[in-house]
Amino acid sequence: MSSKGKVVAIVQARLGSSRLPLKSLLCLRDVPVIDWVTRRLGACERLDSIMVAVPDTPLDVVLLEHLRRRGIPCMAGPEDDVLARFCQAAQLADAGLVVRVCADNPLIWSGAVDRLVDFYRQGHWDYAYNHIPRNNLWPDGLGAEILSRELLDDMGRKATQPSQREHCLNYIWDNAADFRIGTFDPAEDWLRRPDLRLDMDRPDDFRRLALLPITPDMDARAIVDVCGTACGKDCN
Q: pTM for this one?
């Protein structure tokens, strides 16, 4: 697939999570989680723009208005058909390459995203990732996923299973033999921490992160050090 074109991070965000309601607007150190994500993505050197894609529900109007007040590009699309929402967001943003980011990763690191874009462009991948420790040594929650707009649109036409529409990149994993899927390890030893969970999916995750001495501009080394020492086994 093409490695050219505008590189756009599309952030998947919502307020209607059953496991952790309103999580995108919950505050860590007095800063809403969605602001952590967009602020930290703003430090990426390989991204041309950011787009937040939210469900088109009455509840999520609150999130849209929050983003608009901060000047963050955003759009609303189908609540359950997340794949269609991503396709619409990519079209609206005129993306050539799509970097998928989950809004429950408040500690996403610009360096991890930049390295992912470089890795994708230097190889011949259809899809690449470093957001989870699957066949790699990255912590859970620092990175992202990347694919071409061409592949995303193709998936939008071909994916038929409900799980493939609700989880927008499941089609790739369901048909893994048909795609060139790539990942890689961090170069630094201190960053090779697949035991660390830095995402925020459940109330316990929020409690754990909210009690850490973290800041929205903290670098990855400091985040790994703080989580590794302050959380102990609770980070796993």
A: 0.94
Q: Which of 10-14, 118-122, 216-220, 228-232 has the lowest mean pLDDT?
A: 228-232
Contact 219, 226 (CB under 8 A): no
The whole-angstrom separation of Cα 19 and Cα 181 is 30
Parse the chain into domains and list their residue ranges. 7-235
User: In this predicted model, what pLDDT tens digit does every residue of 18-73 receive, in sequence order?
Assistant: 999 999 999 999 999 999 999 999 999 999 999 999 999 999 999 999 999 999 99
Q: Which CATH topology does 7-235 take? A: Spore Coat Polysaccharide Biosynthesis Protein SpsA; Chain A (3.90.550)
- How far is it, in rounded angstroms, from Cα 104 to Cα 208? 13
Strand 49-55 relative to strand 74-77, pairing: parallel
Burial track 170-202 (b if 16+ CB lie within 10 A, e otherwise): bbbeeeeeebebbbbebeeeebbbbebbbbbbe
Residue 6's CB is within 10 A of a number of other CB atoms, namely 15
Residues 186 and 137 sit within 8 Å (Cβ to Cβ): yes
State the maximum Cα–Cα separation within the chain, in Å, rounded to a whole number. Answer: 47
For residues 225 and 228, what is the distance between their CA atoms, to the nearest angstrom?
Answer: 5
